[in-house]
Records
---
Amino acid sequence: MPTETIETFAALKEEPNWSVEAREKAKAVIDQLDPPVVERVKFNRWPLMQQEMGEAFVSEYAAVEPAMTIDDNEPAKIIQYGNQTVAVGLDQALIDQGVVVMDLFEAMTAYPDLIKDNLMTKGVPVTENNLTAYHRAYLNSGIVIYVPANVEVDQPIVARLIQDSTQKQAFNKHVLVIAGENSRFEYIEQWETVGDVPNSANIVVELLLNSGAKVQYTALDNLGPHNHIYLNRRSHLEKDAVIEWAIGEMTEGNLIGDFDADLVGYGSQSYVNIVAISSGKQIVGIDTRVTNIAPYSVGHILQHGVIMDRSTLTFNGIGHILKKAHGSDAQQESRVLMLSDQARGDANPILLIDEHDVTAGHAASVGQIDDEQLFYLKSRGLSEEMAKRLVIRGFLGKVISSISVARIRKELIRLIDRKLGYDED
């Protein structure tokens, strides 16, 4: 794509000079950087760097989308369709406390220092790999969530992020979540696709927690089957910060995911819970890494996946306790349930321990449904299909039960049942 297309897009979005310069610097190094490494997943031929940025103004297709709504009772919400923000709602009480829920490009003007200081500076470095550099250069949409110090938000902050695949357009979206010192809130993302035009998706989510902050982060990923997706989620935790992740990876397209937690502060904690289902000929590779940088930090990973048909699902769990991170704890569990003998599943635990006086452990397995469990349920009068359904639900249950909002929990169950080929209740 010619450089002037980026410049035109940036001009229409009224981007500040510092952001345009960051685009240009990122674009200049894309070809000099290596792709990310996802063990046992071959993705180098995937079309992950699409260059159509789409319209930089609200066009007719976006104007008809407010029908895509979030529960009116939710006090903080934002909806984006393609690269356009089509709805924002924020209660006055939260505005008065300084909470921000906003389009990324609008925030660059309204809160320039906040964005400049935090956008790809602490979480995901621009030059980490060629896909992160591409992301910064061709970024065409995003949102900002900011909760100031000592503010507690009682109800979840919800984002509905919709890929517009009714046209040829890259889905290069950035989510920047900043938790001030001792803040408390829950943030929920719902990802989906409208249309069936093949597109790439390059998504970066940065979760930056200052000292003492506590965030519950839930994501329901349901992007369409005609996508090739790079999804990078990164949390950066200062002293005594705590993040709890619950991710339902129900995407239909080919995906490589990089879900990381950097425990940079003393006593910081990250608990990552992921469920994923692959089907058809889909390829899903997920790297989940926790790096214990500070003493007495805690990083736990739980990954459960189901593979069907001729698909591939790879879980790479990486726990790294660095030198001087004494008293730290790194635990991981990766399990894959095979529903087809033509599918391929990998659960690869990796522990890197550079310090004494620590606790670390891992568990990994790939197997089929337990015949004894099926026999027991069938002996109680259930059909084989319902028995399998309940076993799978139980296998994925820890992540399902960790979602606090009933509506979101029901939506994940619906997505699981749909991907498994069961009729909706």
---
Amino acid sequence: MGLNGVRESLARRVPDGLFPEATEVGGWWKRQNNPEAGLIGADTQSVARRVAFVGSVKWRDETPFGATDLAELVASAQQVPGAQDAALVAVSRRPPTRAAAEGLAAHWGPEAVIAAWR
């Protein structure tokens, strides 16, 4: 499943109790693709009035979402217009490290991504 599939899965999961205002899930990047936010949960698709979350997808077999990934996500989120107060989320094949999990509002793994299609 690629990034678009993950976005579509999350779009099926939200809005929910954690992110009730996130009616659209997409991505954001500058023209140079740096920074890039793979996941944006917002109230509208084109120009969001409210960004609920900014997230990253790291679908690696052996390495969990870690502190370096979280630092990159924080740096990217700070540059997303309107996302200064947005929650940070991650989607990864393996659970995040303890240090990274402490900085995330939510984490979705393979089971959660697939469950959105049931």
---
Amino acid sequence: MLYVVTGPPAAGKSSWIQARARPTDIVIDLDRITVALSGPGAPQWNQDKLLVAVAQRARFAAIDEAVKHREETDVYLIHTMPSGKALARYERLGARVVAVDPGREVVMQRIRDMRAEGMAAVATRWYRHQGKTGAPTVGRQSSRSW
């Protein structure tokens, strides 16, 4: 099964997956990919433009390969704000789309506490477009401890 997990930054998408995924499942998370490609000492949510560009390419390749195996193992894909085209592809693949949203106030506070300033704009954009995925929304979600 392919699970596409959407939601604003700091909503708890990774935590939602961590609570469900087995060690043998495939998890595609741009934050984790970026950290894996970063040098020692890089911040947990590294937004360096060059690293993110490389991580995005790796993410696309991982998605293309992982969806071939969705019948054998669960695939969890974090896609904060999928476009209509992406949603159509996920629908063709039989994905279950889930929106993780603990609420705007919680998200904005988590961003102030833990994330880069620019993430507030991403969250605002997510809330402006909220509901366009038609995904069921998962409410309160614990965030990662780091």
---
Amino acid sequence: MKNTAVDRRAYPEGLVLDRWHALDGWDHRRWTWNVPEPRKARGSIVFQTGRGDIFEKYLETLAEWHRAGWNLTGFDWRGQSGSGRFLTDPTVGHIPSFDPWIDDLDEYVRVWRAEMPGPHILAAHSMGGHLAMRYLIDHRPGLDGAILSAPMLRVVSKPLPKRLAAFIARQFARFGFADQHAWQENERPSLPGSSRQKLLTHDFERYSDEDWWLKHKPELKIGPPSWQWLVSAYASSAAMFAPDTFENVTTPVLIVAALKDRLVDANAIKEAARRLPNARLFIHDYAAHEVLRERDDMREEFTREIERFLEDRAKQAA
């Protein structure tokens, strides 16, 4: 995709922010950015962010897809960003179970598919990629394609073994800490000498976009996850990696990821790509977690793979 300048700190002309209510009444923040001439649309994409994330961070990527002719939409997951909170403490990233998130995605996608032209593509980052994969496995929606950016298919538990880390999380939740922060930093307990920026991207200007948006929209900010979020994440990963899960996904999937990502498990991503019947994995040696917000030289490799995938999906549907 051409690297045309995008104002990453302003909503683009034509993007609409409104509200979407799930069947159970939960009030979500929704955004929509359709192409100005409907007949020229290449198709439609739902884009979902990660844990504690905001879609504003991805306006550059969304602008590239929009220029290529794709209708775009998405919503904030319940319990974070502009979709309210589960707890009176708005800084805790809490969820009783991942199931309501998957149900929300199913409900949203079913209505979206009925209203918008295909091909229909689901794109998601990090925890959003986890939920998108669970959706493909559990609901088998038969979408035309899915793009997963650094998907958090398993929680990184290092230095503890996964089983021990999951056990500890369950004990904290069981003995009254379910709705308390599992750690104090916003991503994960950092390694000595590391910084949040280095975990996310090598590009300081793109990294700074998040801080700019949250200063202007502080109500979107959320802190570290709760112990119950961790319990739910381990349980959801166990369900995902059970026998005969990935193998039954019929949707073509592109996974773009980073080999040295310290926030998600690269080996889990590789296993998923091997087990999926129709998947392509592009994995970069040096990128950090937010591959769509990386330094230009690395980011262009990821966007090129995505552009090729979207072109293929559009041709298949033509």
